[in-house]
Amino acid sequence: MAQSTSPTVPNDHILGVYNRAPLAFERGRGARLYTTEGEEYLDCLAGIATTGLGHAHPKIVEALKDQAEKLWHVSNIFQIPGQEELAKRLCAATFADVVFFTNSGTEAIECALKTARKYHWANGQPDRIEIVGFEGAFHGRSYAAVFAAGNPSYTEGFGPALPGYKTLPYGDLEAFKAAVGPSTAAVIVEPVQGEGGARALGEAELKAMRDHCTANGVLVIYDEIQCGLGRTGKLFAHEWVEGAAPDIMCVAKALGNGFPVGACLATIEAAKGMTVGSHGSTYGGNPLAMAVGLAAFGEINKPETLENVRTVAGYFTQGLKGLQDRYPDVITDIRGKGLLIGVKLAPNNREFMAAARDEKLLIAGGGDNCVRLLPSLLLTQDEAREAIEKLERTCEVMRKKAAA
What we know:
The structure is a single chain. By secondary structure, this protein is an alpha/beta fold. It folds into 2 domains: 25-57 and 303-403, Aspartate Aminotransferase, domain 1; 71-300, Type I PLP-dependent aspartate aminotransferase-like (Major domain) (Aspartate Aminotransferase, domain 2), CATH 3.40.640.10. The protein contains 12 helices and 15 strands. A hairpin with a 2-residue loop joins strand 1 (25-29) and strand 2 (32-35). It starts with 24 loop residues before the first strand and ends with a helix. The model is unreliable at 1-9 (pLDDT under 50).
């Protein structure tokens, strides 16, 4: 068979599923990344909201080195003290009573979906299997996760749709109420969408959804893999809405600051069906991952970290609104919450991202022709000012290109 010559595959031995930018980085520090050629970039991508405390954070590096010299992996057939400690901290800070540790956000989603269906099975209602999700969602790449989101670009070509999944317009409360019925097991929703264009669900809508689910015996699953762990200025995005806590919540990304760690959190009631043998993981929650997770969570859950997010987010919002006023032909809307910022564009967002890279600024793409700013939660105001200046130069380039 002939080898692929696709331009998206820099090495013919790598499966060609990524449209990679022509950059390779060898080191990072804080909000800075350095290429193999020594060029410096301001990182407002953070591994897609993953290196939430920046690159090479000293406390996380120390935790990793210390644990690496002791024990990496044993198996979940044994007690793992680090799991017990991190689960205790997560539960103390949230609605949850129990935690299952995974290697990724996708795996946390899988656990959540299984937990919801098993809950109703344990209650003698095995027909309650339907999962209600929303357009624009992204819950991961596994078979169940892609159908929970329902994005055709992620489901096409993979055979028949999984039964028991329904996709509704994001934020359409009336459609949601009409869709909930006796076969509904759970609703899965991102309080602030990431991939879908940095759209934040209205506080009234989130509370109304929670109340409707409670009244109808439906579990609420929040996907806070991207919008959680300090990203919005509170520890979790749903905390901005009083009385809207979920029954199950998925987290990952910033929990390991780039090290593969995820978790599915639940109330003891929602998890009642998850008994011995009903789920498991080989690597999930191993000692190395737990040491990193404990260090990262400890830093994220500091009041000063969350305060910095709110302060810098306010500065970004003001600066981006100013750019929108000066470049209405380039920027059409500012969205999101905290440091999950969406900028909707008139020109192609991929071209805008490339132009930003020319200014040595890294940003993410997003749905609805948006780009996203997802910087470190520890980004300084001076670094935010630098990002705005780079974005202004990018806007100027895009305006000149459109006029040419």
